[in-house]
Design goal:
This protein has helices at 2-20, 22-43, 45-66, 73-101, 107-114, 118-128, 131-153, 162-180, 182-186, 193-217, 258-265, 282-289, 307-313, 332-339, 363-371, 413-439, 487-492, 494-502, 513-521; strands at 226-227, 233-239, 269-272, 275-276, 317-322, 343-346, 378-383, 445-451, 456-457, 465-466, 481-485, 508-509, 523-524, 546-547, 550-551. By secondary structure, it is α/β, with parallel strands linked by helices. A 7-stranded mixed β-sheet has the order 3-11-8-2-7-5-6, with helices on both faces. β14 (546-547) and β15 (550-551) form a beta hairpin.
Amino acid sequence: MQFIASFNRLLDFFQKILRENLAFILDIFFFNFQPIAYSLFQANLYLGLIAGCALWLSISIIACGIINALPFKWLRSASRAFILGTSFLLWILEVFALFTYKAPIGAGIITAVLETNQQEAREFYHMYVGWPIILGLLGIFLALIVLNYILRHCKIFFPRLFAPLILLLGLFGAISIECFYHGYVLNHLFDPPFYHIYNSARTALSNMDSFNSLSKKLNTNAQITENKSSIPYIVLILGEAMSRHHMALYGYYLPDTPNLCRLKKEGKIAVFTDCISPHSTTVAVLRELFTFHDYESSKPWYEYPNLIDVMKKAGYKTYWLSNQESSGVWGNVALVFANRCDFRQFTRLRDSHEDFGTLDGALLPILEKELKKPAAKNFYVIHLMGGHSLYYERYPYSFAKFDAKDIKGSFTDSQKLVLAQYANAIYYNDYIVSSIIKKFAQKDALVIYLPDHGETIYDNGSNFAGHVEENPNRYMLEIPMIIYGSKSFRQKYPQKWQLICQAVHRPYMTDDMIDTILNLSDIKTPQYNAAKSIINSKFNAARPRLIHGISYDNVMRYL
């Protein structure tokens, strides 16, 4: 009986503290839970609910336990004011980021803020901040004051079970997260705004450090020995994680590349049949795709001249339009090259560890805008998300053409679903690539499309979908490569187009892409090697294609 009486007294005390601090608890809960709920409710409603329960318990403990245990009234009041004010300000920042960038504050946004100068800040203020925003925030602030007044001065009836129910729900949420969703904790998906922003700021500063170090090392001293370039528009569409084995253009049974198949039938594209990437991850490929570095090189990749600076030296205005990350350890290499361009734009501010929800179609209006103000000679790099996992995030609902029942073969139901999603991603990629090509159809233009690397999707009996650098298989390396010549280009450069078409069956690895682009552009540098250009008569088709020292032609292609 004494235990029950003590327990009842404890519940009475807890309920009294809850009643006295209800306004504070509700405010803090709202400011901290709303940004978390934005991400979690999109992924899993149940996950959002248990996170809310756990957060309510944590805030209640802070309000009822820690703060009320402080010795002085003024110290308790100051603590509440500090926590409330900080939570409110951080919530404003998070809501502004969600409204403006459609994403919570991350390292990408913080990097952009830290790199912003006074003029850019002024322009940003006039574009995104004004009286409507200020009045809206004032309205929220006044509403909170009114709510707090009501909760403090009006008598609210609390049932006897209110306190134990709060405790039980909170404990249920905390135990569920610890037992079943601990991985979400490790990946910071439950972080409240103050820790989330702190962690993002720390990551941003680390990324900027790495990026600045890399930028200082990059060889930007491009030298040109011959420049006969005259093509007004040269475009490199850089895809992501695309396997030619899953494209109708290369014989796949699903009609997932209708536009490219039509262009091939019309003789407007050259489709290369034996092309591989030198690596199976983006960063490793970009280091060799945009420089003269390859597996035969003796120096680090950044000590070699890069394609962007060579094209600039040859008189081209250079553009980098990207739907990939704008900062982060995985994005630093791409950003180093992007920053060498005359114009660069990313669809969103984001870091390596943030979501990749923006569709590649967001690049089309950016390209359309830049095409209205061209230079005499223009070189574009358009970096897509293509077929990067998660595949179902790479296309809009209207492009969900295929489903599991369309997949042939002895796959599990879940594997068939993934294969269908990948086919839909390729179907959307076909639309994007052909849309970009269409924008150059009436110009004197040459367009090259290739992904950074391939992708294995349960191929050859495998249970794996994705790509990995440490142990690649042939499907992670075997990629599509397409060259489009506009009508004007084909008429103006018939011999060059003939050389392109004659080269489609040659064995090629894209670590020599810089030599091919310079050959197509009629530009030569001291490092240029005609034997590494796939369209050149001196092309060395016998050059070994080595992946981590293993022969692709003799070993990997047969595994």
